[in-house]
Each structure stands twice: as C-alpha cells, then as structure tokens.
Amino acid sequence: MDPNKNSITSLDDIIFEKRNKEYGAYFLRKNYSKYLKRAAIYGVGASLLILGGAWGFNTFIAPNLEKDDIEVVDIDLSALEEEVDEEEPPPPPPPPEEEPPPPPPEIKQVQFLPPEPKADEEVEIEEPPPTLEEVEKAVISNEDVEGEEVVDVFTPPPPPPPAVTKPAGLGKPKEEEIFTAVEQQPEFPGGTSEMYKYIGNNIKYPAAAQRANVSGRVFVKFVVEKDGSIGKIDVLKGIGFGCDEEAIRVIKSMPKWNPGRQNGKNVRVWFTMPVFYQLE
After folding, report:
1. What's the pLDDT at 171?
2. Is the terminal CB of the chain with fewer CB neighbours within 10 Å at N or C?
3. What are the phi and psi torsion angles at 88 (to 5°)?
C-alpha cells in the first residue's frame, strides 16, 4: 500500500482509482449523500410549513369568519304545483285530411266504327279465280285476253354473254396472315439453348457501345416464314449505339427454323426474343 495516500479512502476513490475522475459520474457519486440530506431537509421543512399554515388557519382565522352573511330563503312550491295541476293540457290537433289521389291522365282515343252498307249502294260481286286447267294453257297476265291456247309455257333463257378474251384487272393478292400463337410454335434447330449459343458465338459488341459503357437488352420481333426462313424484323425496344443493328444482323444470319404449324399446315408466325449485351 502506498504510504503517501490518505488512510481514509472511500469506495468511489477505489472504483475510480485508474479512471477519469473529471467525468460526471465520479462527481455525482461523491456528492450524492450530501444532496440527499439537503433534499430531505427541504422536504421536511416544506411539510412542516404546510401543516403549520393549516393549523393556524383553522385555529385563528376560521372561528372569526361571520356566519350571518349567508341568507337562506325558503320558497313555497306548493302554490305553483296547484296552478300547474289546474291547467289542463290542450287537446291534440285533428289529423290532416287526406287529399284524394289525382285522376289518371287521359289516353288519346280515336273512334272507329265498321262501315255499314247503305241501302241504295250496290254490292260488287267478286269473280272467282281461274282454275288450274285454265292457268296451265294460258300465260299469266294482269288482264284476260282471248286468244290461242299455249301448249308450252316455258320461256327459253337468254343467250349466254360473250366470252371474255382479256383478263380482268385483278388487284394484288392479299398477304398471308401472320399468326402470333399457333398449335406448334416455330423453333430454332436444337432448341432455345442452341439459339442463344449461336447468338453468343456470332454477335459482335459495337465499339461505340463499349466506349460508352452501354449494356442491356434489345427486344426484337421477327417473322418465321412457312419454309423456316427469317422474314420481317422489327426492333421493339433498343439501346442504341449500334446494338440494335447488330442484333438484326445476327438474327438475319440464322439458319432456317422449324416452322410453326396450324391445322396441320405450315404458317407464318411472329416470334419475339431479347438479345443481351453485357460488358465483362
């Protein structure tokens, strides 16, 4: 033990022996008991002050207050209750008379009477229609004409029109329909993995895209013809810097696909695919 140190050492000195005593914890722990005693004294003094004030008020001030300042007034309510009982409540008002509903709107009408023949008016007698035998031996017309009976009523058809020697000016034949979904979709020889392998081996990263550090996907839509060749090509979404043109070039250079089929026949089909550009 160091003889230079004081013989009386507190617990705080032992705890903070090799620590920074300028820190606030050491100061608070060292003065905690002093502050606690001071707070206890202040609290007891305040309590005694409040109790003494209450005792003095009840002993010296309260008995000297005048109790005659408050006047109590008695009100007789019996007369009011009798007046209220004598008054009868007014009778309820009679219910309102119900108004009759309005008459329905009148509908437009027109008088119609069957015609009555007059006494002096002559009644025409209609002639009976001709019999079947009379119709077979005569030509049907809107009036009766006396003449020879017809044996054969059949009328020969008109002569055929002259033959056309010059071809008619026909328009261009309609372009065959291009399907978007068919029973059997077109397929690259070997499948999708071989298709992307072919693109990876044949595509060239444009120098402009490399200098600009451009990467991404180019979405291309093209037609697989009935013989499997690649037809029309459209770029749906590109990234520029020559990447769109390079994707079109590689797709055009593909070998023939297995064409799409619908109802057992080869048909033209739209096909959409992305072409990836990724810098290493």
Report:
1. 47
2. C
3. -85, 145
The tokens for 221 are: 């839509």
240 class by beta-carbon count within 10 Å (0-12 exposed, 13-18 middle, 19+ buried)? middle
Strands 260-262 and 265-277: what pairing? Answer: antiparallel
Q: What is the CATH number of domain 179-277?
A: 3.30.2420
Contacts of 257 (CB under 8 A, 6+ apart): 186, 187, 188, 189, 224, 228, 229, 230
Per-residue burial over 98-110, b if 16 or more Cβ lie within 10 Å, else e, is eeeeeeeeeeeee
CA neighbours closer than 13 Å in the CB half-sphere of residue 279: 11
Amino acid letter, 240: G
The structure tokens 């079947």 sit at 132
**Distances in Å between the alpha carbon of 221 and those of 132, 230, 252?**
74, 11, 12
- The C-alpha atoms of residue 239 and residue 211 are separated, in whole angstroms, by 14
Side chain identity, residue 72:
V
pLDDT tens by residue, 57-114? 888 777 776 555 556 666 667 766 666 556 667 788 888 777 788 887 776 665 555 6
- CA-closest candidate to residue 274, choices 247, 249, 255, 252: 247
The domains of the chain are located at: 7-61, 179-277
Q: How far apart are CA 115 and CA 117, in angstroms?
A: 6
